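Retro notes - structure team

What went well: the batch runner handled both jobs without manual restarts.
What didn't: labels got mixed up in the shared folder, which is why I'm recording both outputs here explicitly, each with its sequence directly above its tokens.

Job 1
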Amino acid sequence: MTEIKFRTYFENKFWYFTLNEIMERVATYHGDWDIQALRAEKQQFSGLKDQSNNKNEVYEGDIIEEIGWEGDYYLVEFIDCAFYAKSLKKHVPAGLRTRHVKLDELMDIQVVGNKFDNPDLLKKGEN
């Protein structure tokens, strides 16, 4: 079973927590830093790793591309209890009815950035 993990972007870097660590920190209160970090937007681990040599974990907010389809960027989102890849193209890609594809339906993916550190990729995918 995949461990439930989250990350939060706080003080210009990512902080990683398991669900148990979040619960423990809330229950024991480790000071203002914890409260601020835990109030920041939390992004859940999808349970998937990309196909790069580093086998990066894929989280909400990551920008990915499907290997072999360079330039087709997707933003990972968690919607209605499932992970989706939202196409960053202005128009719906050919063969799709929506800009959202279930994340596990993409074949070989690679994390190329995230919405915090690489906002330029959000716009680059619109071509």
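Job 2
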Amino acid sequence: MKRCVYADHAATTPLMPEVVGEGLVHILDVKGIAVSAGAACDSRNTQVSHVLKAIRLPVRQARGVIRISLGAENTLEDLRRIVDAMR
């Protein structure tokens, strides 16, 4: 499965065009991993993020985007667990 990653200092967003973001949120939740679909600043909005539109990400791909928030307490093992859960 091909994955693209868009990242900044606060978030990492895997792009999985063959998976709807909300579905992946549920799959990871069952595995004990909390992620989100959609913008952090507007959790009620189910539309494609204005940021994803601004970078001209196709709607089909934008629907597969999830947000993984990381902090100072996260470890490399935490990241490996997320990656393994998404395989």
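One thing worth noting from job 2: Helices lie at 21-30, 50-54, 59-62, 76-85.
We'll revisit the folder naming next retro.
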